[in-house]
Structures are given as structure tokens and as C-alpha cells.
Amino acid sequence: MRTSRREFLQSAGALAVCFALPACSRHAVSITGGQAVLGNRLLLHASGAIELLLGKVEFGQGVGTAMAQIAAEELDVNVDRMQLVPVDTDRSPDEFYTFSSISIQQSGPPTRRAAAAARQFLLQRAAARLDVAADTLNVRDGDIYSAGKRTKLSYWQLIGDENIDIDIDDDQAVKAVDDYSIVGESCPRIDIPGKVFGAASYLQDLRLPGMLHARVVRPPAERAQLTSIDASAVEQLPGVVTVVRDGDFLAVVAERESQARDAARALRDSIAWKLAGDMPDERALYDWLKTADTRVEPVASKTPDSTQRKTTATVAANYQRPYQAHASMSPSAAIAQFDGRQMTVWSHGQGMYPLRTGIAHVLNLDIEDVRCLHHEAAGCYGHNGADDAACDAAAIAMRLPGKPIRLQWERADEMAWEPYGSAMHIEVEADVDEAGDVAAWRYDIWSCPHSSRPRDPEAAGNMIYARQKQDPLPLPPAQSIPQPNGGADRNGVPLYAFETMEVTKHLVTDVPIRVSALRGLGAYANVFAIESFMDELALRAGADPMDYRLRQLDDERAIALLERLAKTTNWYQRQTGRGGEGWGLGFARFKNRSSYVGVVMRVAVDPGTGAIRLKQADAICDAGLVINPDGVKAQIEGGIIQSASWTLKEQVRFSRESKQSLDWASYPILRFDEIPDIDVALMQRDDQPPLGVGESAQGPTAAAIANAVYAATGQRLRRLPLVPRPA
Amino acid sequence: MALKFRLNGKEVSIDVDPQTPLLEVLRNDIALNGPKFGCGLAQCGACAVLLDGVSVRSCVMPVQSIAGKDITTLEGLGSATNPHPLQAAFIAEQALQCGYCASGVITTAAAFLEQNPTPRDDEIKQALSAHLCRCGAQPRMVRAVARAARQLAGEDS
């Protein structure tokens, strides 16, 4: 049976705050006792607990704690009253995907206004009861104080057992930044204690009564066709409940997990596939990118009305990045249960509402009959296999009504079938003036798309099951993300004040290898290319790389950031002789509109082996008003390490016929003994709006490493991952 | 036939196919959340538990091989009311992002600190180098292990 919203939120007394978002019928704050209605942001219970309904999903980036701080700040309550409610399409705000590092920007303001509206309403009620002016009252953790003295009133008493609905204004007053005492503090993450004591914290910890275990069996590559199968022996294996075949989609369901795994192995052995053999030759990957059919799209174009500048030379270089994987620590998983009409799906995907739309479309269900609930899994870093696994599980559950189906992808399923970050080939050319500064900049990007999320019914065919099933959905056309965010061209437009610029994207439209959003999208490779090339140009001009950047920037925040980085690292006092050790600089403002990050990396390169050792990373970040400084630092640290791993090690391997990176041996990542010491500093910018930080460090880190390797060895490495020759 | 072993200090008896991986028994039959499935190949360390005090990969260990032995998981190290110094240190250092790797890292670190109570940072990194973390929380985890070592040695932390 499905619980209605009203029943779901039933409690002994509550104040619910919602907004005119899709799940809400009108612009209202609902303050209710007994039964709460439409509480789609914040629910204050008379018991003293506060439920905060998140619109964005937590995956270890700390968004839940940051939102709790924002709400607690406006309400004047302790953060530990906040109970975070993960996204549930039956009750949560619809904030689409958790992506693009915009959670704080997008979800923060409505959370803030909702909390402020609740406080304002309750204080007005308290003022009436006490017969004083509301502005003489203040609140400490829900207790009402009048002229500095504690009254007998509290939020919880004021809620009582009533049902109250009030309207709020668009311009709901909120606290001034100067009055903040919770926002701006490094509140400990709410989710960490549970995780270190083994509390149920993850989707994987959800165990439903009667739950069955499923595995999918997939071919070695996309576009393969099933030519023969003999499932009869598999069906007789111990514990096997059923073998699912729907077109080329194959799955097994068993009572125990190892039985499902054994059955999947046996089924795999009974199948013959006709392989398409249409993947590019890995050794000629970048030639393939350049010669494939592309859609040419202008990204940016800038020409001065007139110019006095004389250019004296043209400099050019190419940069390349291979396919790289999200490679989450937990292979994708999902639980689905179908009751004959309604489908419930527990998923660790980044967008429960679009997932609901996609699953409803693919399985031909009424969207109102699909409910998707987010449960955290391991960090995901973009569009990995989570949505596909959710759709797989739902498709299997349709065949076994009443049974909760827990689908677990194996490591090899994840590595072979998650949509990778696309390979990219970049050609850059600069006309430089007598001083060596850039007068004209030409920049061309060849890439597959950087998003294939199943974001709407038209894109539902991006899910693996949708294409494998009998009567498959067509593969949606290659999607280009336009500026100012950009996909392949994210951060493809330099932030530098070049007089003339021409940036062009060449989008490969026939995509033989699944690709989608990987942390930063094109920004990682574009910043690597731009910032490597700036280093090359600086050295050609005989300028210090820091000075060379500074003199071509007109963005004041960027300039302040780099000047501070130069100072804190003693950049100008560094040893610049080679000798196997070197410093490198990388800088960008993510999307040219989010947070600024500069990184100085110090490396040592072994002359015998060419092995790069990362010694020290110093980073600085301007993220505007910071909600949780330690949370921002953690994101930058993690971004540096993940980028260092991409930059030094990562490359998806494949033959013409099959994926070859199937585990951690064939897709190695950076290990504990390979990480540098890291120091992250934050610019104080409380006067500026908060900016996301999850994807800002990756590009600068890659360039800082490449530039440091050049400083250490004289080798300019333009292809990722970086592999120096022995001296 | 029932198979007996000690889990987090208590006798348990389980009747499953003796080839079942220990991880599956711990997670699915006993409903522990600490050890995680990450690869099933003994490569990532998410499933690490202590077998008679030694860190092992439970995802590739048939449950029959631990009959009569002593298994410790994250849950056996400590609890919210009585945390192991490593658990307290992981909270103090905010030493995880998604935390999926943390159970394995903490259990391996617990065994390591028994062997080396006063480690240098490079020794901690070496001891944990067979554990993968994809979020990039390694520097904080190294700090947390060092902090726990200091606490175990009786220093103020």
C-alpha cells in the first residue's frame, strides 16, 4: 500500500514549511499539529525534532550538513536537532540532479527562506502570547527569550497540536551575514559518526523482508547482439528463482547473493554474443576523435573593433585526455519492489525525480505509480551506473511482483558499463605580441558528449535496459551542453583577458563507447590544456608563470587569489633549477562563474624510471561565502587527489571488441603511499554569494602537475595520463 | 551443518554453504553494516575484517575457513558510547567523505597499531596502501590514525 503524503508526515504536532515547487500546490508555509501537509522543505515537530527534506543528495560531499547549518542558522536552533531526510519523490522538493556543483547555490536560498519563515511565524505567535513586540524576542535552540530573559515558551510549545497553514512572501526576510553564528563554522558532518560505527548508512545496508538477489549478465561491449543462450541448466542451480531474458537484457534472481553470482557466471558461459567490433583503435584514439563525424559548434568568439597590437609569432600545441572512469568504490546497486501496480525503487543515483520519469517511461508505468528514494552509496562523482542499475532492478521486479529485488552490479559490470568521461583532443594556437603575451587565441576541442543522463522521457533510451530490451528505445541523439556551463567546452573559454578569441567544439555524434558526466566534465582537460599552454607561453616569453598569468587577467578575485597563493607558497623564492624536482602552477574559475582555485604542486621525478612523486600541494579557493570551511577544504583536498589519480594513472583500456579495464588491477588509481601533503587555504569573501567547490580543483591540479614535471625535467607532457621518459 | 566462530567477542553459529564468502555471511546473514562489498576480488579493501587480529579480505574468504576462529569487524572495535580511539579520531579529523572505504581502513589500522603503536606517517601510508579511497580522504585518514596512535599511547589529543 502506498502511503499518502498526509499519512507519511503524520505526527503529534508539527510545523511544515514548503515552497511553490512542483510537489507543492501553492506558495505556503504549513504549520501543523496532528497532521502535517505538504511539508516539502522543513518539518518542525512539537517533539523538538526538525526534519529537513533535502532536494539534493548526499554522497559524502557534505551537502546535508551544510543545508542543516543553513536551516539551523535561520531558526536559531542547534544543528543536532536536524534530521536529514534523503530525497523521496513522495515528499521531497524536486531539485532535479545533484550536479554541476550548484547544490548550495540552488538549494540553499529556499532552505534559508523556509527556516526564516518558520521562525518569523513562531515569534509572532510568541509575541502575541507574551503581549510584547516580536522584535524584542530572540531564540536559543528553540526556546523563546524576551528582552534577554528566558520565557516559558518554545517553538515546540507554540506548535502544540495544531494544524496551521500560512503564506510566505517571495522576499521573506533572512538573517544578515554579519549575524551568522552557525553558517561559516566547521560543523562536524552529521553522517560521519554512523559511518564509523557501522550504523545503516548506505543503500547496501537496506535489507527488506523476503528480499531476493539479482545479477545482470552483460556482453563485453555495447552494441553486441545475443546470438545463442541456453539457460536451462542455470534455472536448475540451487536457489535460482528465475532467469530473466528480455531482448538482449539478461538477469538472474536467486535467494542468496552467492547463488545469484554463481548463476550469473553459469549464464554468462552459456551465451554467445556477436560483437560489433566498432570501438576505436586505442592506439589511434585521438586520430579517431579528429576524423569521426562531428557536429561543429561555435563556443566563443571575440574580436576587437580595432587593435594596435602587433603579433610576432604563432605558437601551437595539442593536448589529449583518454577515457576515464568514475570508478566508484561501490559498484552500482538498487532495490526495487513492484506490487502489481506501483513500483518503489531505492537508488543511489543523483536525481530521484528524473530517475522516476525515466523508469516510468521505460517500463510503461504511470509516473504517479513510481516512487524513487535516495539512499547513499559510495561517492559517485557524476553520472555512473546508478541510474542504469535502478532501471535494471525495476525491470526485474516487474516480473516478480511483491518481491523486493536487490540488484548488485559486480565490479566488472561497473567498470565496463558505467558511462565514462569522454576522451578529448584539444588543439590550441596563440598569436603572441612582442612581450610574448597572447593577442589572439584559437582553441578547438574534439570530444564525445559529456552528458547522457536519462533526464527526461526523450532521454530515457540512455539507460542500458531501455536499449537492451525487446523493442528497445532508440538511443537519444548526442547532447551538447551549451555555454555558459558547457560540456566538452566547460572551461574551454579562458578566463584571461585575451583581445581575440575563437573557441570551437567538434562534437562526435556517433558514440561507440558510453560517455556521460564525470566530475568537472570538459573542465578537467580544458584547464589542463589552457594552463599547460599558458606555462609554455610564459617560458617562451621569459616570464615567471605566475606573473605571466597575472598580467593577462582582469578579474580582481582571480588576481587576489593568485597573489595570495604566490605569497603563501613563497612562489618567487622557489628553486627553479631542474635537478628532478619542480614546482607547477594551475588555476581556473570553474565554469568561469563558480569558485576559483589555484594549485601549486611540487613534484620529484625519478631520473631512472621517470616515476612522478607528488610531494606537496598548496591550494587556495575563493568560494564566496563559505557555509562550512572544513567541508570546502575536504572537497578541495579530495578534488586534488582524484585529479592527481586521473592525471598520473587513469586510462580506460579497450580493444576494438571489448572493454579491458574491468577491475582495480586493470584500472589502477592513486594509493595512500602516493598522495602528496596537501594544504588548502580559503579566501575570506563573506560579502559574495556562496559558490560550489566539488569540481573546481581538478583542472588546476592536472596543469600544476604537468607544469611541475616540466620544471623538474624539461619534458612537456601534453597527453594524459602523464608518463615521463626516464632521463 | 552449523559452522561456529567468534564474531566481535560472541559465539555465532551459522548454517550456510561452507563456500559462501565470509562477507556475505557477515552482511546478509548476520546483518552487519561495517564490512563492505567493493570488488569481490580482494583488491580494494572495503571488506577488510580482522581474523585472529590480522586484516584479511572477507570477500574472497570461504566461511568454512574461519571455523573456530575469531573475527572482528568495525562494529567489534567500538561503539558510539565506547568508541575505539580510531573511530573517535576519524570523527575528530572528519576523516572520510563517502566513508565506504572507512570500515576496511579502520580495521586494518587497528591491527597495524597493535604491531606499530608509534608509527611515522609514511609507515601509516604504507600500512594502508592496499586500501583504495576514491574520494581522496587519505590525508585525513593518515592524520586520524596518527591521532589514535597518540591517544593509545596515553598522550592528550
List the helices and strands and how they pair.
The complex is a heterodimer of chains A (727) and B (157).
Chain A: H1 5-8, E1 14-17, E2 29-32, E3 42-45, E4 50-53, H2 63-75, E5 82-85, H3 103-130, E6 137-140, E7 143-146, E8 149-154, H4 155-159, E9 164-166, H5 192-197, E10 212-217, E11 225-228, H6 232-235, E12 240-246, E13 249-254, H7 257-269, E14 272-274, H8 285-291, E15 294-302, E16 311-321, E17 333-338, E18 343-347, H9 352-363, E19 370-374, H10 386-399, E20 405-408, H11 411-417, E21 424-433, E22 438-447, H12 464-468, E23 500-508, H13 523-540, H14 545-550, H15 556-568, E24 581-589, E25 596-605, E26 612-622, H16 629-649, E27 677-682, H17 698-713
Parallel strand pairs in A: 4-5, 10-20, 18-19, 22-23, 26-27
Antiparallel strand pairs in A: 1-2, 1-3, 2-9, 3-4, 6-7, 7-8, 10-13, 11-14, 12-13, 15-23, 16-21, 17-18, 17-20, 21-22, 24-25, 25-26
Helix pairs in contact in A: 2-3, 9-10, 13-17, 16-17
Chain B: E1 3-7, E2 10-14, H1 22-29, E3 48-51, E4 54-57, E5 70-72, H2 74-77, H3 85-92, H4 102-115, H5 121-127, H6 138-152
Parallel strand pairs in B: 1-5
Antiparallel strand pairs in B: 1-2, 3-4, 3-5
Helix pairs in contact in B: 3-6
Structure described in brief:
Chain A is of the alpha+beta class. Chain A is 26% helix and 23% strand.
Written account of the structure:
The complex is a heterodimer of chains A (727) and B (157). Chain A is 26% helix and 23% strand. Chain A has 727 residues and is α+β, with helices and mostly antiparallel strands. Among the domains of chain A are: 5-187, 2-Layer Sandwich (Aldehyde Oxidoreductase, domain 4); 424-450 and 486-713, Aldehyde oxidase/xanthine dehydrogenase, molybdopterin binding domain (Aldehyde Oxidoreductase, domain 4), CATH 3.30.365. Mean pLDDT of chain A is 93; it is low at 1-11 and 19-39. Chain B folds into 2 domains: 3-76, Ubiquitin-like (UB roll), CATH 3.10.20; 85-152, Orthogonal Bundle (DNA polymerase, domain 1), CATH 1.10.150. A 5-stranded mixed β-sheet of chain B has the order 2-1-5-3-4, sandwiched between helices. Chain B starts with a strand and ends in a 5-residue tail after the last helix. Classes of the chains: A alpha+beta (727), B alpha+beta (157). The interface between A and B is large, with 57 and 60 residues.
